[in-house]
Amino acid sequence: MWLAVPAGFLAGSIPVSYVVARHLTGVDLRRVGNGTVSGTALYQVAGFGPLAAAGILEVAKGAVGPALAGRRHPIVAAGATAASIVGHNWSPWLRGAGGRGISPALGALAVAAPAAAATLLAGMVGGRLAGQTAVGSLLADALAVPAARRAHGQAAGWAAGAAIAPMLVKRVVGNRPADPRRASTYVWRLLFDRDTRLPGPVAQRLVARTGR
User: How far apart are CA 80 and CA 12, in angstroms?
Assistant: First the structure.
């Protein structure tokens, strides 16, 4: 039963998008954009076909740990969920680099808390349609735990929380040092998943509040 946790970490740590990008294009995704090893970076260098194939595997690997734990062992399932996403976000095969954890979170929560998985997916789609994918994902992160608890009970809420926590941590710490290293930069990362300012009145109010 407890083997589900290390199995989840091992499966999650497999950098599928990185391997596909290196095999097809020779590009190291750690050197693309902000260094996140993600489906977005893979799409930029290889296109939609490789993204679709890798995306299926990235989601599936997140389901391994929770599936092995089973729903009769909710604490182990929550631990396996967290381990899957930690392995993905800080892969030992990439010297601690990795993605944001969204794909393996969808796979893990599809097993342990389907309502939370649906919430994350809706946030991504809604955010993209609104032109603010990062904001939509953050809103979904905030709603995932209550959605899971309401639909499936306390145990599913634990799994959802175990998935969201490492995702938020990775969103803030990123794969590279903050530039500049100010508190406001980490606020930008949390809210908009980027270090730079965003135009418009919302950004201006955030700048005033954080002192950037």
Answer: 10
Q: Number of C-alpha atoms within 13 angstroms, CB side, residue 203?
A: 12
Tell me the three state secondary structure of residue 6: helix
How many other CB atoms are there within 10 angstroms of residue 80's CB atom? 36
- Give residue 30's Cα distance to chain centre: 16
Model pTM score: 0.87
**What does the alpha-carbon distance between residue 93 and residue 105 come to, in Å, rounded to a whole number?**
19
Q: What does the alpha-carbon distance between residue 134 and residue 41 come to, in Å, rounded to a whole number?
A: 15
For 64, the token pair is 């391994």
Check the CA dihedral 179-181-183-186 and report its sign. positive
Alpha-carbon span 195 to 136, nearest angstrom: 18
Peptide bond into 199 cis (omega under 30): no
Shortest CA distance to 192 belongs to which of 209, 177, 176, 206? 206
Which phi-psi region, left, alpha or beta, contains residue 199 (left: φ > 0; alpha: ψ -120 to 50)?
beta
Rg (CA), the chain: 17
Helices (H) and strands (E) in the chain, counts: 11, 0
pLDDT tens digits, one per residue of 70-126: 988 999 999 999 999 999 999 999 999 999 999 999 999 999 999 999 999 999 999
